[in-house]
Amino acid sequence: MLSRLAAAALLAGLPASAQVPLTPVDPDATLVEELVVTARERGPAFWRVEDADTVVHVLGVPSLAPKRMAWDQAGFMRRLAGANVVVVPAKGMRVRLAGAPGAAISYLRLKSSRPFEETLSPAEQARFASARARLGKPPGRYGTKNPLAAGLLLITDYRDTHSLSDQDPNKLIRLLASQAGVPIESKTYDLSPLLGAVVKAGDGAGRACLDEALRDVDQGPDGTLAATRAWADGDVRGALAAERTYERCINSVPGAAALDARIKADQAAQIAQALKRPGHAIAVVQLRPLLSQGGVLDRLRAQGFTVKTPGEADAEPTDPAV
Predict the structure, then answer these.
(1) Which of 145, 165, 217, 310 lies at a C-alpha separation of 20 to 30 Å from 2?
(2) Rounded CA separation 311/237 (Å)
(3) C-alpha dist (Å) from residue 21 to 51, 92, 103, 198, 308
(4) CA-to-CA separations, 222 to 40, 67, 93, 108, 250, in angstroms, rounded
(5) Closest by alpha carbon to 194, among 263, 284, 129?
(6) Smallest Cα–Cα separation from 177: which of 57, 54, 89, 80?
(7) Rg of the chain, C-alpha, whole Å
(8) Which residues make beta-bridge pairs with 200?
(9) Which run of H or of E encompasses 159?
């Protein structure tokens, strides 16, 4: 549970609160509009990053999707044939408690024998109790004194209840690449330092994040499901229309924005490295970090690489880069 909590914490940023005015820090808020293009071919959209003798086909994927969702794999399998490597997002975020006393202490400070909802006002308590009851969870499940931690636990339970995951379709992509004998490359990040920042998050910030988590539970999964259907159809703008609440819950925590930038820089560097080998490769990047200003494709264009959108003509079948 701890690793899932911390992994979830990585991907978010703190929105404004009605109680305490906050300035959201959302590095993916502004998109590079000329890159937001509907795919011409059937199935999920691919972008192309090119140099003189190499193509990297970049598949943008949702940050949240139904577990084991169905999608047309024909375009992916065509590109997978003969690929040098498949670069995929981090499989999981590592939290090291053993040998990291600071992380262990931070985790213990998040725990409490008293249910979190007992710390709330009557109106807040009713809303929280209603949300966790809809998810089938008892009060003791949220034994924490930290509102940010309570929100992260609540939204994790919400995702589990509705079979939503931030690991799909990446799991299937890893499996397909492995079956095809194509090398898989990914990185792992240690989130132990962020635990201390979660503990120190101000009450206003924590409650703002909790409010976003409650809003996700209230709204239900329809928006996410519609966005993933759009993704599967190559409708990039529709795929980007998914609610952005929980994904913004941590970026204002000290260290999270820097880690976000580091991950984007690493993904761009992995693609640039793949371009050094003649032939073709595949990279998988979440849609928002892929298409935002300062995102992965924006960084690659700044380095002088050619980036083509899903709306541009695909290469001919005789092209060895396909």
Answers:
(1) 217
(2) 13
(3) 46, 33, 29, 19, 41
(4) 26, 15, 27, 36, 24
(5) 263
(6) 80
(7) 20
(8) none
(9) helix 147-161
Q: Which of 280, 284, 287, 266 is nearest to 319 (CA)?
A: 280
The first and second tokens of residue 76, run together, are 């992916």
Q: Cα–Cα distance between 142 and 240 in angstroms, integer?
A: 31
Domain ranges across the chain:
2-308
pTM above 0.90? Answer: no
130-153 confidence digits (pLDDT tens): 999 999 999 999 988 888 788 888
Token output for 302: 């700044």
* Cα 306 to the center of its chain, rounded Å: 25
pLDDT at site 299: 98
Biggest distance spanned by C-alpha atoms of the chain:
67
| Closest by Cα among 129, 109, 108 to 117 | 129
Mapped onto helix, strand or coil, the DSSP state of residue 165 is strand
Tokens (6 digits) for 291: 């298409």
Chain segment 225-260, per-residue pLDDT in tens: 999 999 999 999 999 998 666 666 666 666 777 888
SS3 breakdown of the chain: % helix, strand, coil, rounded to 5? 45, 10, 40
Q: Dig out the tokens for 281 from the structure.
A: 């490769």
DSSP 29: S
Q: How many CB atoms lie within 10 A of CB 245?
A: 19
Tokens in use for 2? 């701890």
